[in-house]
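Preliminary data (for renewal application), succinic acid complex.
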Amino acid sequence: MKQLTSRLGLLALMMTLCMAAMAQKPHVHILATGGTIAGAGSSTTGSNYTAGQVAIGTLLDAVPEVNDVAEVTGEQIVNIGSQDMTDDVWLTLSKRINEIFENNEADAVVITHGTDTMEETAFWLSLTVKSKRPVVLVGAMRSSTAMSADGPLNLYNAVVAAADKASADKGVMVAMNGILIPGQIVSKTNTTSVETFQASTGGPIGYVFGGKVYYNMSYGLTAQRIVFDVSNLTKLPKVGIIYAYSNIEADMLDPILNGGYKGVIHAGLGNGNIHKNVFPVLEKAREQGILVVRSSRVPSGNTTLDAEVDDNKYEFIASQSLSPQKARILLMLSLTTTTDWQQIQKYFNLFM
Ligand code: SIN
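Predicted structure:
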């Protein structure tokens, strides 16, 4: 009888521990960088405001509901408009996130960020964060003092998405206006609308509604992941973008040839085509050892290999689905490992 009582006691203790473990909320750590979500203006209706004014504590105070879904902590990395984003901030973010996951400091990370370069930071992180745990970027199109500010709901949705078990292997995503878009394929498509963020290919991965996450489909890009080790990097190779247009003149490219650039992205015409005035300069750049990537100024569709341009002959790289600004990030990171254009083309081929 005594033995039975002690067994029952042990069972009850185990069940209590199990239930306590189940009731434990996931830990979501917020890294704040500024942006309109932390912006403030003097009028609730005017369009004038300054980004990056409000600290993370104040942002979180406006959305106490996040504490119902997660243990939330915050850390201010910078407080800037994302138009001023730098390589240094990107390196800081990647190193900090890798450290958080390696030390098990949190189950997921949310980054508050301006929308102007959010797609670039999301793409950067998708190439440099080693873990597949959720890293959810969020911002706002209306400042924190505007009427119908979108920041609080966006922030709540981002924490909901980060905390959900179904997000455990989804990696980097953007949570804006109720939808979730993978970091590799997200783009800002409208200068002022709250529904500005869209997926360049394949559509959103899911959405958040009423405090719940709904994933639409399995996500193939995670299988083809490439991760660059930035732990020892303090600086990135210099890579610039040249934007093509009718009648462009060759001297536009002078800084590329003489400015210490290691690579150039040509935001070309149509399927990455190059004006005849510019072609010889890009050939010369390549002869000087500068990597040349053909991308396109057209907002959708791939820049494909060997179409009107014989990439093999000129040792040019086709950007596949990557926009010029994302191609720049992949080329910078590629150049930290190799200058072999064929190997770099293989990296770009992961983004068909
Ligand atoms: C910024 O990118 O920091 C300003 C614009 C915005 O957040 O929407």
